[in-house]
Amino acid sequence: MLDYKLIEAFATVVKEAGFEKAAEKIHITQSAVSQRVKLLEEQLGQILLLRTAPPGATDAGKKILKLFNQVSHLEKDIRHSLESDRIE
Fold first, then answer.
1. For strand 49-50 and strand 56-57, is the pairing parallel, antiparallel, or unpaired?
2. What one-character DSSP code corresponds to residue 58?
3. What is the distance between the alpha carbons of residues 86 and 27, in angstroms, rounded to a whole number?
4. DSSP state, residue 45
5. What angle do CA 81, 82, 86 make, to 5 degrees?
6. Alpha carbon distance 40, 9 (integer Å)
């Protein structure tokens, strides 16, 4: 099973165009962001992040970003559905 805290760190690095901004966004240290990305890459056996300025996703990384976006949308949908159920 994939660890979405690791994926979130990776996705945030790409979205925020850097480790420092990603760390600020998810409220952890820059070192912790870096460790999470490295651990995710190790678990998947793939390099996901191009360490360029700004960082970018490899082809494998783009697949993980797609998954992260899909899961995020599903979470929003279920929260909306649950809120609607609560109101009725």
1. antiparallel
2. -
3. 31
4. T
5. 120
6. 9
pTM of the model: 0.89
Residue with tokens 């995710």: 40
Cβ atoms of 50 and 56 closer than 8 Å:
yes
* Res 88: pLDDT: 62
Are the C-beta atoms of residues 32 and 40 closer than 8 Å to each other?
no
H-helix or E-strand spanning residue 49: strand 49-50
The tens-digit pLDDT sequence of the chain (88 residues) is 999 999 999 999 999 999 999 999 999 999 999 999 999 999 999 999 999 999 999 999 999 999 999 999 999 999 999 988 877 6
Token pair for 68 = 């992260």
